[in-house]
């Protein structure tokens, strides 16, 4: 398929609705330059109108686009060329034929459906690479001299088995120590129920997804394990599904009414909250949701405080720790290029030491210039009251005054202000990676000017979904249908209203389809229908870069510059060349990972 066809499709869709953004998605698929090639090929492609990347762009053979009640247009084939007879709206325009509004609307529907069906390039379904690093802000790695890391879910990735163990232990603790009903013990862990970034209404006992504008996404509100009807949600929140700023969350994700669950460790906690709520509701037992929230939070906390999680992992490192060889490869890659490395984690030294020896080797400390354990983040980043303490080789506290942070030593607690004073590591020459947007990244980004990289393991799964043909076709038709609704809403006679209602119903069905591809309960962690989620907005605010794991660094050399895509604002015209030249589809050094995976 030629680039001219892609441009024609994009132009038609843009004319249908200024707010429809799907055209810029598919024009970006024109040619392999989107993922690997130089930008000079783009100019040649558009100038010569030649076929670009025929392996990516071929005639669609989808059957997922919905059919309409109106007859489809007939095609007349002559030789190798296909001629399409004029549409009903085209004939009406050229001949002055009068048609009723209902027929006209379905004709426009069919025209758009034909464009989507015929011109979506199937190759677009495999353009996103799960090992890509995504940029919210421009970052030149050549300017970064110091790399810092959190430990859990950053240097060390864990298997889903750990979530089950955390859930089971906290559930049993809730029953045995807090004397909750034995019936709760019958609730097993549900691996794919909760998702990161959800909010929990503490007093109402509701788990939900909220978008960047503080609106609850209807259809994602759960009381226990059952969804709450939309009309009941509106009634519970005073006739609206908007949650005021002061109730949603404070700077670290917890407000007076709501708690946002932001790290991967929080998924078992959300599932236990849902299970306990479900037990009380199903058995018609009166209870206080506020007390339940506190007790579940304490039970989950005891799994960490009493060291259960550390014990499980240290006893079976192979079972719980994933892809440790990639962690070694990243550290070796950075150190061999003269970069300074440091570690700041809340985990204890004995736990970190055993895990790092398993992943990196017994000399793992040689990679790091500074190692800090039990740092008590986020307080480490905003409180100057705690001094550093040195640990000996056995992990025992030493009494000497800390006048410098030396390589080969282990330090406990401390604070960022002393860290900056003793190291001199300031500003954009420092890049720190962590999985918790609030505890790991927010202060560093907003108050100290460090570069930050968010580790989002969910990206791997979500990228696989986005790369499917079903998702691409469903989303494209959803956007096209939304554009039709926007342009055709001025038809307000009774028959036209019936058509528009049919379209609105189909739009809601398509939204449900795309949501369920990610998670049947809560959908994608990044979007609520068309808006970014509250989690997604915080991700953009607190991280310069984000990626599925630190091993994504192996895809790029250390002088690489990340350029964020210039997403058009609502009042701006989309700039196709900008979408082609920058963005998420460039992963230049994938061969470097071949020996690791």
From TrEMBL:
GO molecular function, one term: 5'-nucleotidase activity
Transmembrane segments: none
A Pfam family reported for this protein in Swiss-Prot or TrEMBL: 5_nucleotid
Highest taxon above the source species: Eukaryota
InterPro entries for the chain: HAD-like_sf, HAD-SF_hydro_IG_5-nucl, HAD_sf
Keywords from the named record: Hydrolase, Magnesium, Metal-binding
Keyword Magnesium among record annotations: yes
UniProt keyword Metal-binding, yes or no: yes
Family: Belongs to the 5'(3')-deoxyribonucleotidase family.
Protein name, entry field: 5'-nucleotidase domain containing 2
Organism: Salmo trutta (Brown trout)
